[in-house]
Write a structure and sequence with these properties.
With about 400 residues, this protein is mostly beta strands. It has strands spanning about 30-35, 50, 55-60, 60, 70, 80-85, 90-95, 110-115, 125-130, 135-145, 150-155, 160, 175-180, 185-190, 195-205, 210-220, 225-235, 240, 250-255, 260-270, 280-290, 295, 300-310, 315-320, 325-330, 335-345, 350-355, 360-365, 375-380, 390-395.
């Protein structure tokens, strides 16, 4: 939501390394510094920044190549520098100005500018976070048309006006004052005739340190979402037999704010974790595909329990003999009660014991025959003689 209106994004974040978590400087090609030696060049004397069609920059220096960016970690090298920072909840970029802080004004030698290609006549939502050590800082952001990106007025007071109908058509006008503790800022921007999005930290005033992070720029769907999804119901648990073929549903049920019931497509992200040869309970996560004309502001994912059911609820995990006794180890996949039978290969002798097992329980049972056996048949049955395990035949080594 933005100002009470639901919107639907249709692109990924257009800012690379928008949270500045990569300290290498390799993903900073959208960020530049200016070249004017004074923050207040008089009208007509400034060097206009521009990105050319071939991607080369004019009157701009890539921040990563400027010599002002400290990479590799959180270092305060000197004033008039940029470096990465980190606290318990975020990573960010710091602009640290010396006493000559006015030089950071528009396209000044230490100004910070970002340019992101965008589409004309398209809505975008932009958000970022900022913090200042003291005082206030000013930033301006919005859509610009690179061909008409020229300040008409730039005097000693630092006032600016840009041509291009798309420029700064955003909430809070063309200037956003930031300062104090970490604060989140957000605007919906209509690009107009703009072909680039501009962010410019152009006026630090007496803030000294400007910390910025959380840069997100998304293209919005043509129309705001008028209907919202109010509920998504995950599918009921699925049971598949051991060794069977897993088949997951293609859709999940949902309801919208206007009372409509929908079947929404779901993409199962980790279905490969289910091993139908291994009986146990698995949890599969799916991502629900929300149509562009519908808004949903929660986590659009569902979880599905998949139960791989053993062919028999109990497995004989080992049979051995020692000192004349036959030892049997059992593992249960579900709660069962039954009778463990051990018989001689000719069924002349039978030993038995009643057992009650819980899920995941393993037990070891030893039964001693009246006389030595050459082989033993091991079975675990219900009292009605329904098999609960596969039969195991154990050849007893000669003494």
């Amino acid at each position: 939501y933005y100002e009470g209106q639901p919107y639907r994004v249709k692109s990924g974040n257009l800012f690379k390394n928008g949270d500045f978590s990569d300290y290498s400087g390799q993903n900073m090609d959208q960020w530049y510094t200016g070249v004017n030696t004074s923050g207040h060049p008089v009208t007509g004397s400034y060097q206009i920044p521009r990105l050319k069609n071939d991607g080369k920059c004019e009157n701009l220096v890539p921040l990563a190549e400027s010599g002002l960016l400290t990479t590799g970690g959180q270092e305060i090298d000197r004033p008039d520098t940029f470096y990465y920072g980190k606290d318990n909840s975020r990573t960010y970029l710091v602009e640290h100005m010396a006493e000559n802080w006015q030089n950071c004004a528009w396209n000044g030698s230490k100004s910070l500018l970002a340019y992101v290609p965008i589409k004309p006549n398209t809505k975008y939502i932009f958000s970022f976070s900022a913090y200042t050590l003291r005082g206030m800082a000013s930033v301006r952001y919005g859509a610009i048309n690179m061909d008409s990106y020229v300040p008409e007025v730039y005097d000693e007071n630092g006032s600016l006006q840009f041509s291009g109908s798309g420029y700064m058509d955003c909430t809070n006008g063309n200037i956003q004052n930031v300062g104090g503790g970490w604060t989140d800022y957000c605007s919906v921007i209509d690009s107009g005739d703009g072909d680039y999005f501009l962010f410019n930290a152009y006026w630090l005033q007496m803030a000294e340190y400007l910390c910025i992070g959380g840069f997100e720029l998304y293209e919005l769907a043509d129309e705001p979402a008028s209907v919202t999804v109010t509920d998504i119901t995950g599918p009921a648990a699925i049971t598949v037999g051991q060794g069977g073929v897993l088949s997951l549903p293609d859709t999940v049920a949902a309801r919208t704010s206007d009372g409509e019931s929908l079947d929404l497509e779901v993409e199962w992200l980790n279905a490969d974790i289910v091993d139908t040869s291994l009986p146990q309970v698995y949890t599969v996560t799916g991502r629900v595909n929300i149509p562009d004309n519908i808004y949903y502001n929660a986590d659009a994912s569902v979880r599905l329990r998949v139960v791989v059911k053993a062919l028999h609820p109990v497995k004989i995990t080992s049979v051995s003999s020692e000192n004349g006794a036959v030892a049997v180890e059992l593992a249960a996949y579900e709660p069962v009660a039954g009778v463990l039978y051990i018989s001689a290969d000719n069924a002349a002798q039978v030993k038995s014991r009643e057992l009650r097992l819980t899920v995941g329980e393993s037990v070891r049972v030893e039964l001693s025959p009246d006389k030595p056996w050459a082989a033993a048949n091991v079975m675990f049955w219900t009292k009605d003689l329904e098999p609960l395990t596969e039969k195991a035949v154990y050849n007893i080594p000669a003494a």
